[in-house]
Amino acid sequence: MTEGTLRYTAFTDDPAGGNPAGVLLDAAGLDDAAMLATAAEVGYSETVFVTARDEAERRFAVRYFSPLAEVAFCGHATIALAVALAERIGPGPLTLDTAAGEIPVRTVADGAGRVRATLTSVPTRSRPASEAEVGATLRALGWEAADLDPRLPPHVAFGGNDHLILAAAGRERLADLSYDFDALAEVMRRHNWTTVDLVWRASPVRFHARNPFPVGGVVEDPATGAAAAAFGGYLRALGLAPAAGTPIAIRQGEDMGRPSDLTITLDPGEPRTHVTGTAVPTV
């Protein structure tokens, strides 16, 4: 493995929870093949690579790789990177240049020294999913149309990557996830979706989520910041966004034994999502 690769887990303060990410703070000398090989060796859903840096301006060029391919944007690896940087150069604002666009990140240390990071997504968008998109996905998941919540229609939402959002009618349906890995991966590759964001609404400001990620070689993501950003755009598009600045809690990873807590907030007139979480080293 490339020397200096850090391992953090994001959207948790427990090393046994959250979504692990590899973090390489100096990848300026690595080519695409080397970054992909490193991500594959790390074995997490994503590893983030800092390919250029200006510490005086607190600006960093970054790239994200799953074990199988490059990803334009990854939320949990962004939170992990932001915390790792804040621990080394101090908390404060950061700017990340990604393939998806510029991502501002704010890092703040609490009284106990723990760092909390908030990323601001690129502009989001959301559109109704077609019958063909939904039908093929339901077949791969082994779900029926009756398993969906009619109050939260299927959409394809973007917050740096595209995600199909399907809302389960009940918590039990969300908890029982056993899908055809290859079939779902084929559907997702066809439509260029990064994850399928399966959600259940516990209240207008609290959701449970699961994110199958077969296109990245991973059965399920324990915490998906990019999907949370897209989900904020989805709520805005449906007119379901709460009052400005009201926290929306997303609980993910619970059913796979890696509980994660993501918080999103939305501002009126701004098509972006603020995604907040913590991160800690895994070892």
TrEMBL record:
Taxonomy, superkingdom: Bacteria
Cross-referenced InterPro entries: Phenazine_PhzF-like
Keyword Magnesium: no
Signal peptide annotation: none
Pfam families: PhzC-PhzF (PF02567)
One GO cellular component, as annotated: cytoplasm
Active site: 46
SUPFAM superfamilies hit by this protein: Diaminopimelate epimerase-like
GO molecular function annotation: isomerase activity
Keyword set includes Isomerase: yes
Key words, A-Z: Isomerase
Family, as annotated: Belongs to the PhzF family.
Designated name of the protein: Phenazine biosynthesis protein
Organism classification: Bacteria, Bacillati, Actinomycetota, Actinomycetes, Kitasatosporales
